[in-house]
Automatic annotation (TrEMBL):
It comes from the Bacteria. SMART domains: HTH_MARR. This is HTH marR-type domain-containing protein. Keywords: DNA-binding, Transcription, Transcription regulation. PROSITE patterns: HTH_MARR_2 (PS50995). It comes from Streptococcus panodentis.
């Protein structure tokens, strides 16, 4: 099992490397491109949720969001029943910029996913999602148990 896990982690790192390469290829628009990518699902997201889902520090995310808001790419709205939480939405200008900036990469991403799903089925995404959540739960539980023992 250890070798399988190591192989899996190499694959995860390869995917992360690809996203970092895309970000670098976008130059100064790299961080903005990342924000476009995570917001481009048409949903409103809170900074708290984006930080958790995408594992990015809230301070880093806040800086990117502020810049995007100043440039008119995103709109911030108060989340009902919270004191300070804001949800982030792409504006029409932001949607257009996201399409222009990300389209070449999304097409390649779609091709890779389609080829993989053709060979292994779309279930591999569901399986990997289950595995990642299960691993997170086990590790967090393990950390908490170790901390109690000290």
């Amino acid at each position: 099992m250890r070798q399988e896990f190591r192989s899996l982690m190499k694959s995860v790192n390869r995917v992360e490397f690809v996203f970092e390469a895309i970000q670098k290829s976008l130059g100064e628009k790299g961080k903005l491109g990342w924000l476009f990518y995570v917001l481009d699902d048409g949903q409103a997201h809170s900074q708290k949720q984006l930080s958790k889902d995408w594992m990015i520090p809230r301070s880093t995310l806040n800086a990117i969001v502020k810049k995007a808001e100043e440039e008119g790419f995103v709109e911030l709205r108060s989340v009902p029943k919270t004191r300070r939480e804001l949800e982030i939405l792409l504006t029409e200008k932001g949607k257009a910029a996201a399409d222009e900036l990300l389209q070449p990469y999304i097409e390649l991403e779609d091709q890779a996913l389609a080829e993989t799903a053709e060979k292994y089925s779309h279930h591999f995404v569901e399986v990997f999602d289950y595995f990642s959540k299960n691993l997170e739960q086990k590790i967090i539980q393990g950390i908490m148990e170790q901390e109690r023992d000290f």
